[in-house]
Amino acid sequence: MNDRATAEPSSEYRALFEHVSDGLLVLDPESGAVRDANGRFVAMSGFDRDALTDARLDDLLVEGSRSEAPIQSLVDAADDGRTVEWRFRRRTGTPFWADLSASLADLCGEQCVLTTVRDVTERRRRREELGRFEELVEHVPTGIFRAPCDPDGTFLEANPTMVDLFDAESKVDLLSTPVADIYADGDDCRSFFDALAGRSVVTEKVELRTLTGDRFWGLVTVCRCENADGETYIDGAIKDVTETREYQQVLEEQNERLELLNRIVRHDIRNDMQLVQGMADLLDDVSGDGDQPHLETIRTRTKHVIELTDLMGELMDALVTESGENLEPTNLSFVLDREVREAESSYPDATIRTRGNVPLVEVMANDMLRSVFRNLLNNAVQHHDGDEPTVEVSADVEDEWVQVRIADDGPGIDPDRREAVFGRGEKGLGSEGTGLGLYLVYTLVDHYGGSVWIEDNEPRGSVFNVRLRLT
User: Fold this and answer.
1) Is 60 in contact with 45 (CB distance < 8 Å)?
2) More confident residue, 183 or 422
């Protein structure tokens, strides 16, 4: 117990002392010894009352979290009407932050320091988190601001990026600027705030202007908020997306040119080559035997050009389609069976068969899925090194995927070249193909979110595997 005897407090004092919602400590003003503690502080610290009244204030604090003379600091704070925030330790050893307010009092005829102890661990944690958040806002490379809901009102707050983004001379310069002034077009400003009136969050890409008159495209996201007094304001973020928009415009222009080229390739060139093909057939009746090799060469080359224009058109369609765009449930069995029949008709000397039944499933694709299987079947026959190629098609479902296998008995593909054959312009040695067919296969399957790869076939040849997601 303390070496300083104290008179027994009255029952009224004890009742008040115990019913205070905060922790209370009665401290000796000179030594800092604990004379008394209420039940709230006992529960807060975990120490029982006897242990507390055998302790000094120094013993209850985490070392390094307070001054060298804590009781004197507490008395000085009381004289100045201040509070102090120190870190206490619980009996279990875990620390907690507490806000201490003290007053000098005369209790039972003796002077003491009556100290209120309030656990502020959670408050301090939130304050530290807020500090980290504010530091992030200060350094994030995106403009962050607060403004009134009135576009004619001036900014209320802005981070340094906002100041730089709008070429303001200072933060004060930006804060004196009406929100409407940063819009390049007043109609865009009114439209934005009209949208905000009906929704709590609005995101739009609009043309903005700096305080010096330069224009740029910004991605603006604004949240409508309300403070405790019922006043509304907006918090927002602005990211400069000028380069992204310019790049998008370039892509759109390139796509337009590709589509124009696509129409020329598919219509004009294909029609002209079909005319040449027809004229070559007419010459059969008037040509001699010596002319037949030349006519056959014309027919072969013409057929190749027609196939090439079809392939180029399909490839351009694939290239101008954004990832994930225009995908829909597509019947795998219908598409695959049709392409197998087409291949059988085109290559009467080849044996093309389906092993087992193709699963009656739908995959995420589009009508260009036919090009995937057509090119793989054509590739299996055209790159065969014998007179009677055999191609076997099969498909199996596993979990959320279906795997289609197109196996041939050709010369096979060197493992070192298997990835390369799907690249732009790749083709086998001695091949007369364009090298675009397998590139189209890879492009389309990748667009569908699937994968394609090559394995060895036994005892000879290659297996092209296509893995597609089920709907």
Assistant:
1) yes
2) 183
pLDDT at 44 over 90: yes
Helices (H) and strands (E) in the chain, counts: 15, 17
Q: CB 221: neighbour CB atoms within 10 A? A: 15
Among 131, 137, 178, 141, smallest CA distance to 158 is for 137
**270: phi then psi, degrees, rounded to nearest 5:** -65, -45
The distance between the two most distant Cα atoms of the chain, rounded to a whole number of Å, is: 138
Strand-pair partners of 89: 95
Q: Residue 349: pLDDT above 70?
A: yes
Helices (H), 97-148: 121-139
Q: What is the pTM of this model?
A: 0.43
For residue 319, what pLDDT is reported?
A: 59
Nearest C-alpha neighbor of 380 from the set 347, 404, 403:
347
Residue 206 has what pLDDT?
A: 93
User: For the residues 322-335, what does the mean pLDDT come to?
Assistant: 80
Give the residue from 22, 14, 17, 9 showing the smallest Cα distance to 116. 22
Q: Cα–Cα distances in Å, from 265 out to 123, 251, 254, 367?
A: 70, 20, 16, 20
Distance of CA 268 to the CA centre of its chain: 44
Residue 163 main-chain phi, psi, to 5 deg = -60, -45
**112 Cβ contact list (under 8 Å, min separation 6):** 26, 27, 28, 29, 35, 104, 105, 106
How is the beta sheet containing 84-89 ordered, strand by strand?
A: 34-37, 23-27, 110-119, 95-107, 84-89
Looking at the predicted structure, is the pLDDT value of residue 424 above 60? Answer: no
CA-CA distance, 208 to 240, in Å (whole number)?
A: 9
> If phi over 0 gives left and psi between -120 and 50 gives alpha, with beta otherwise, what is residue 12?
alpha
SS3 174: helix
The two three-digit tokens of residue 137, written as one number: 């806002």
CB–CB of 220/166 below 8 Å? no
Dist. CA 451–CA 461, nearest whole Å: 20
Rg, the chain, Cα only: 41
H or E segment and range at residue 308: helix 292-320
User: What is the spatial distance between Cα 313 and Cα 258, in angstroms, rounded to a whole number?
Assistant: 9
Q: Which residue has the tokens 């290559």?
A: 347
The C-alpha angle 385, 437, 452, rounded to 5 degrees, equals 90
